[in-house]
Amino acid sequence: MAKVTGLGGVFYVVEDPAATRAWYRDTLGIDGEYGPQLNWSEETGNKPYSLISHFSDDEYIKPGKGGFMINLRVDDCDGMVAQLRDKGVEVLGHVDEGYGKFAWILDPDGVKIELWEQVQAPD
Q: What would you measure as the largest C-alpha separation in the chain, in angstroms?
């Protein structure tokens, strides 16, 4: 039987795609032929996974706009937060939940980005 094997991408409309792509390249260090590209072969964590999560309201996504948020895996959340602050990026929050570390920023179009360091493998 055919099965879904992972997240293929996030697609959304912005006013200036070239500027948004440059921000992802210059700020987060991700780029690719068709936009920011993440290669699973570079993931070193134990049982890495992607998640599609549903909410009944947009409270968790605020102050982002558009009704969605992008979650990006990082290998060192504390280090990424320091790098972002050095680049003048406002970090909206930064927490360690034990099972994972999280931080939040907004991209230049107001889309909320959650940075996530997976600390524990799923059960």
A: 48
Instruction: Transcribe 45-109 into DSSP letters.
Output: SSS--------SSSTTTTTS-SS-EEEEE-S-HHHHHHHHHHTTPPP-EEEE-SSEEEEEEE-TT
**Distance between CA atoms of 113 and 70, rounded to whole angstroms?**
5
| 48-88 pLDDT per residue, tens | 777 788 888 889 899 998 888 998 888 899 999 999 999 99
Which residue type does 79 have?
G
Closest by Cα among 95, 96, 89 to 112: 89
Phi-psi region of 99 (alpha: psi -120 to 50; beta: other; left: phi over 0): alpha
CA dist., res. 116 & res. 104, Å (int): 9
pTM value is 0.80
| Single-letter amino acid code for the residue at 105 | I
